[in-house]
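Slide 14.
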Amino acid sequence: MSEAPGSGIDVFYPIVPDADWLARLVPLGVRTVQLRIKDAPREEVRRQLAASLVVTRAHRCQLIVNDYWREAIETGADWVHLGQEDLAGADLEAIKAARMCLGISTHSEGELETALAAEPDYVALGPVYETKLKVMKWAPQGLERVRQWKARIGDKPLVAIGGITPQRAPDVLAAGAQSVAVITEFMTAPEPEQRVREWLAWAQTTRASCRSNRISEAAQKKRPAP
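Slide 15: predicted structure.
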């Protein structure tokens, strides 16, 4: 699946720490990007969100704002992603009133129940594999957990995150994820832009394969029964 139906989420979903990183990567052809700003004053957050919206709109890229839902509403963003702690303090009615789409992180069965109660537009699961971004209290989930999560959430898009590489990504999608979120894998590369180009080449191939499969499935449905 190249793009979750109605969600605007591409199969390749990079996460960046600031507007400068976003401006470096989006013009390469990124279709979905999350802006994950940490511990910044509200004015700085608004400034970076506004700058990021200019870039993403110019390049037809979907911007997803991590955590800062108030600033996202104020600046006119249309997607927000919440972790479990931020979800607990968020005004979901205000988010819905602003007609924003919502993604939520999950790491356990209990967190999945909490997320589904909020009626998100997508669910994220991680870490699928071991990650070096930060110390996690959650063990790697593995592909079987990806399958279980997809069975639980049904038609909602599932975003997988944590330790995913272009080599691992096909197995993650085959297990049921619609999109793979990536941070450390490209940010720590000697040439981050080149690594993102490699991801984009993989994404293009994956989109083409998905389109071919959909065409084939449609043709099969049109064939008369024997």
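Speaker note: The two ends are 30 Å apart (CA to CA).
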